[in-house]
Write a structure and sequence with these properties.
6 helices; 2 domains; five-stranded antiparallel sheet; single chain; alpha+beta; Four Helix Bundle (Hemerythrin (Met), subunit A)
């Protein structure tokens, strides 16, 4: 506990305080950064609503604020499939951050971009003979020809295209449900492309 707060500088003149050994100093919750479950309560507002609490993760030491029932930064939805790295990992984390922050249209557009990245990682040329990047249909056709997706999967892969087209050309914003729909499909695509191979390779490694 001492190590977790020894680097903090606290403003003076606060009307009340509590000891770091006080039961109030520990809060159960989920850290949005590392998913740790033990939080340290650094301070809280005692007058008027909503209640505000300033917390710090006991594991990674990242800070967060609770204003009533809302926590900032919010816990990121979905998960990172094993084996995802590089640009694909950066894009996927950005998608999760967009979903957590409520920027649903951006999340859907990034899912389309991530699918193109996945296709390139599976052998699709970054530039065609015309010098242009491949379009969505070319990327999907390549993934199907490489066996990453099957014909039955085209239905949900096309869902990424359809919602993305609406985000580009329709004034109405993308709903949270639509964005989560597309993101969940994208997560499954990441699992099929990277996680399964990763797990097979890990199991094939000789035991020490």
């Amino acid at each position: 506990m001492a190590d977790a707060i020894s680097d903090l500088t606290i403003i003076s003149g606060a009307p009340g305080n509590f000891s770091k050994s006080d039961n109030r100093a520990f809060v159960l919750g989920e850290c949005p950064n590392c998913a740790g479950t033990q939080l340290i309560l650094l301070g809280y507002k005692t007058i008027s609503s909503p209640i505000t609490r300033w917390l710090r993760c006991a594991n990674c030491e990242h800070g967060l604020v609770q204003n009533g029932s809302k926590t900032s930064p919010s816990t990121l939805p979905l998960r990172v499939p094993k084996g995802v790295s590089g640009g694909e990992l950066e894009l996927w984390n950005e998608i999760r951050e967009c979903l957590g922050g409520g920027t649903t249209t951006a999340a859907v557009m990034l899912c389309r971009k991530l699918l193109l990245h996945i296709a390139v990682s599976q052998g699709l040329h970054e530039k065609g003979e015309n010098g242009r990047s491949p379009n969505f249909l070319q990327a999907v056709n390549h993934l199907e020809s490489e066996g990453v997706i099957t014909k039955k999967m085209r239905v949900w892969v096309d869902r990424i295209k359809d919602v993305g087209n609406e985000a580009n050309h329709v004034i109405a914003s993308v709903s949270k449900a639509q964005a989560m729909d597309v993101a969940e499909f994208t997560e499954q695509l990441l699992r099929l492309t990277y996680e399964m191979d990763y797990l097979i390779e890990k199991r094939a490694e000789p035991e020490e």
